[in-house]
Amino acid sequence: MAGRDIRDMTGGAALSVLGAAYGLHAATTLPLGTIRSMGPGMFPAILGTILVVLGLAVAIPAAFREGAPMDLRRWSPTFVLLGIAAFALVVRPFGLIPATVAVVGLSQLAEREVKPGRMLLLTGFAALLAWGIFGLALGLPMHMLNWPF
């Protein structure tokens, strides 16, 4: 297994396990109903099954092909999790746009090479997109920009 495509094998296996857990939970805790009269557990159970199949479709071929060695960086998951935590802490007091800037900005630090110009462009575009989708298109009643001081 040393030269196999470990990334796709791991990703496909994780997708299959999550799909199986999701589908099994839906099938055992919610009524499935019938095809003519679907219950609330039918759709999640079908989605879980589809995730298992797609995960296997990714993992099985990866076991028979060569792949690049995995390049694991210790700090990458930390920056992504910090970005999610910053979003959760910033969205209520400051609004959606600063929270989007926080999550995108911190998550970009997970890359090996951080390019400030690209970082500013992507962060600004993501904030503009969040405002356009959630503020204008959907009209959600949430603060886009709030200064609590």
Give a nutshell description of this structure.
The chain has 149 residues and is mainly alpha-helical. The protein is built from five helices and no strands. The chain folds into two domains: 6-62; 76-137, no CATH class.
Topology, please?
Elements: H1 6-29, H2 42-62, H3 76-94, H4 96-108, H5 116-137
Q: What do you see in this structure?
A:
With 149 residues, the protein is mostly helical. The protein folds into 2 domains: 6-62; 76-137, no CATH class. It contains 5 helices and no strands. It has helices at 6-29, 42-62, 76-94, 96-108, 116-137. The mean pLDDT is 89.
Radius of gyration: 21 Å
Number of domains: 2
Our measurement of the CA-to-CA distance between the termini, rounded to an integer number of angstroms, reads: 57 Å
Query: How many beta-strand runs?
Result: 0
Q: SSE order, as H and E?
A: HHHHH
Work out the helicity level: 55-70%
Structural class: mainly alpha
**Mean pLDDT reading:** 89
Q: What can be said about the biggest beta sheet?
A: none
